[in-house]
Amino acid sequence: MEAALKYNSEHVQLTGLYNRSVLERFLKSDALVSGNVKRGLVYINLSAMYLLSLRYGFHFTETLLKKISDSLKAFCNDNYTLFNTYEDRFVFYVKGYKDKRELVAFCETIVETLNSYLYIHGITAGIGVIEIDEAQIKDTDELLRLLLITSEMATNNNAGDNNILFYGPEIKAQATRENVISHELTEIAEGIKTERLYLQFQPVLNLSSNQICGFEALARLKSEKYGIVPPLEFITVAEKINLIVPLGERIILQALGFLRKLNENGHEKIAIFINISLIQLLSAGFAEKFIGRINEMGLNPENIGIELTESVFSVEIEEINRIINLLKSAGIKILIDDFGTGYSSFARGSELNIDSIKIDKSFIDKLLSVRSEETITGDIISIA
Predict the structure, then answer these.
(1) CATH, domain 2-167, list 3.40.50.2300, 3.30.70.270, 3.40.630.30, 2.40.30.40
(2) pLDDT digits over 339-376, tens only?
(3) Predicted model pTM
(4) I need a surface site. Which of 60, 91, 272, 354 has the fewest CB within 10 A?
């Protein structure tokens, strides 16, 4: 019984691997050992697998994680120890490697292994690497925090084609920036200095009449420390700290309030288009709450559009269409924004019950040099 309790306290049940507490003990133990042995940590971040949970269910993801962990175990030896620090996070503790090139080669092999499972599903892993120095290994909490941040930056495609990123001073600066932005977003969600999160309204032009027919509501964040923060940056942080839904609600209220002011000034046919994240769209009762807000404010739902990104194609289409159909039944228009920046949507674009698409400018720009894409563009337009 005692042996079983000890095993369970040190291992993850699904994978049979050592857990985070054992890794911390390893690191603290090694901090007492002197010598010139090179030590490093390779953090495998599979957080993107939550999309597979949405698409196929928890059991599918759990089975896939077990297969991945079994494949990673094949790399273990006296110098490479594998830990499962969280349900979708793995860490190799590497000792006695020759140089950075050896670590890079190891990471590239890991990427190949992971891609054999992930590529078919359109997701990738982020791999963060820290070469440990004597000062770092004495503070295991900070070391693991920086390792996690490095892997998250790699996951967010800041690390090149292979999503492998080595820790450096610039990452610590980025981590500090992210913490500040996270704190400010938390304050805004709590109702403190909410003016920092505001909207800019981009006119939508009717090419037939050359008249403004609507506005796209674009969320902006003005940080007290950093000034204007790019939307992609603060939205990523908001999603990471689970604040995208309450912050998104504030954005919706501002946008609908703007439309009501337009109506009060006699512009009753002007439309408003609001960007909604996948997480917010899938949140419980989103469609019903959104329609309720519109009715409470006395607005015409036919003058309201929701813009979604191609990330909706990563989720079970039936579920997305169920929500879309609820919104459309009230008269709300559904658009796909930045169409052409992903790679799965070309085959699946006609599966969603949407009203229109916005082809991304970066895709159109390629037509100047790649004539073969003209056919693809025609196909996209025909889908719409």
Answers:
(1) 3.30.70.270
(2) 655 544 455 556 778 877 766 565 556 555 555 545 55
(3) 0.76
(4) 60
